[in-house]
Write a structure and sequence with these properties.
The chain is of the alpha/beta class. It has helices at about 30-40, 70-75, 90-100, 130-140, 165-170, 245-250, 270-280, 295-305, 345-360, 375-385, and strands spanning about 1-5, 10-15, 55-60, 80-85, 110, 120-125, 145-155, 175-180, 185-190, 215-220, 230-235, 260-265, 285-290, 310-315, 330-335, 340, 340-345, 360-370, 385-390, 395-400. A 7-stranded mixed β-sheet has the order 5-4-3-6-7-9-8. Strands 14-13-12-15-18-20-19 form a 7-stranded mixed β-sheet, with helices on both faces. Helix 8 (about 295-305) links the parallel strand 13 (about 285-290) and strand 14 (about 310-315). The protein is globular, with a radius of gyration of 23 Å. Mean pLDDT is about 90; it is low at about 195-205.
């Protein structure tokens, strides 16, 4: 747990799932910089003291990674706060941090990136995401809700804000400028351009095209069990333009399932692994799990696009923590090795532990990863066994069996 001090009080915040050994903070210098600006504690362009932002009306926070911004703003008496996130983990962290701060669960409105945005936004606060595509998609969805008087402020670390980032704000919303850097963080200020016939404070009539999402591509002939299948990708999905080479390697060596086996595509992304398993065995029951709402929507779209038979379930969740014990026959996993900008195997470890608990005796976990990540050590410790099912110069596919 770590403490964020603001002019509105100090808040003890944690990531989710909470781990006392985790040294990563639940907030960043970018979050702190934005909160100082809102409170009127930052400098303006001329080096003077900036005026505080009036947090009145409908305040929307987009991309709040662990709920720090939402938790602090929830106490502002005249603000109706809505959080929009693509992360199930961020949503759970927000709920925990709100409760720790003494706020009721309904103190803020919690939406996902797949939900319809609020009709009107008076203050829009954007934590710049890692994915430029997700940022574009969200700005396009939110732009019609802005009016000429809407205050729009983005925030991110200097390494996260690029010329392309600023061009998106400028093109979709209006004139954009940035602040000076503070503690390697920067703010983005954008003024919504007035629309014809609209007045400051009035409901906007601006219309923004839907953008290029979702995107589709057909898997090439060298994709093993996935050859010829169509992948559907909503904004923000890993390797949305083409099949990533790790997934291709696992598709080339996809294990068989038989009868009504329960197969889980864990960390499913666009769901191509689970879809290939469903096409290969129409009797299989396939569960697609990811912590990204965009990913779960992509997996469902991929599954439907390939007319996969059988039964399927699509779940936004924390790995396999909600899966009944001893209920799964096969888990397919291409785990991430980063959390936002931090490189860590914590997510992979959580996935491996969840798979061990969810598998039936004799059930198997198949994992693809870069050779240097050393997943075999973790799997051997958890399962008591691990085999190399396939390998090449870059990747290894590991197979662990639940013995009892």
């Amino acid at each position: 747990m770590n403490r964020l001090s603001t002019s509105w009080g100090a808040y003890d915040l944690t990531r989710f799932p909470e781990d006392p050994r985790d040294q990563l903070r639940a907030w960043s210098a970018a979050d702190a910089y934005l909160l100082r600006h809102l409170a009127g504690e930052s400098e303006d362009e001329d080096g003077g003291e900036a005026a505080p932002v009036a947090l009145d009306g409908d305040v929307v926070v987009v991309g709040d990674r662990w709920g720090a911004l939402t938790t602090v703003l929830a106490a502002r008496p005249s603000a109706r706060v809505t959080q929009i996130t693509d992360s199930f983990l961020a949503r759970q962290a927000t709920l925990a941090n709100l409760a720790r701060a003494g706020h009721a669960p309904d103190a803020v409105r919690l939406l996902t990136t797949r939900d319809t945005p609020p009709e009107r936004i008076d203050v829009l606060l954007v934590r710049v995401p890692k994915s430029l595509a997700l940022l574009e998609d969200q700005l396009r969805r939110l732009a019609p809700s802005l009016h000429a008087g809407t205050v729009v402020v983005g925030t991110g670390m200097v390494t996260e804000i690029h010329t392309s980032t600023l061009e998106l704000f400028e093109r979709i919303i209006g004139p954009t400028r940035t602040s000076l850097a503070r503690q390697k963080a920067r703010l983005i200020f954008t003024e919504p351009e007035p629309e014809s016939g609209s007045e400051s404070g009035s409901k906007p009539d601006r219309a923004v095209d839907a953008g290029p999402w979702p995107r589709r591509y057909v898997l090439p002939a060298d994709s093993g069990a996935g050859a010829g299948l169509t992948a559907v990708n909503h904004a923000g999905i890993f390797c949305a333009e083409r099949l990533d080479i790790g997934t291709r390697f696992l598709l080339q060596n996809l294990p068989e399932s038989h009868g009504d086996a329960h197969v889980v595509d864990l960390g499913c992304g666009n769901g191509i692994l689970g879809t290939a398993a469903a096409v290969a065995n129409p009797e299989a029951r396939v569960t697609f799990v990811d912590e990204s709402y965009q990913a779960v929507a992509s997996a469902e779209a991929t599954y439907r696009a390939n007319a996969a038979a059988g039964k399927a379930e699509f779940v936004a969740g924390d790995a396999l923590t909600a899966m009944p014990a001893a209920s799964v026959d096969l888990v397919l996993n291409n785990p991430p090795f980063h959390s936002h900008q931090a490189t860590t195997d914590a997510t992979a470890q959580r996935m491996f532990r969840g798979a061990r608990d969810a598998l039936r005796p004799g059930g198997e976990l198949w994992v693809v990863g870069n050779r240097h990540l050393g997943y075999h050590v973790r799997l051997k410790r958890l399962f008591g066994n691990v085999d190399v099912a396939a390998s090449n110069r870059k990747f290894v596919i590991l197979r662990a069996v639940k013995r009892r």
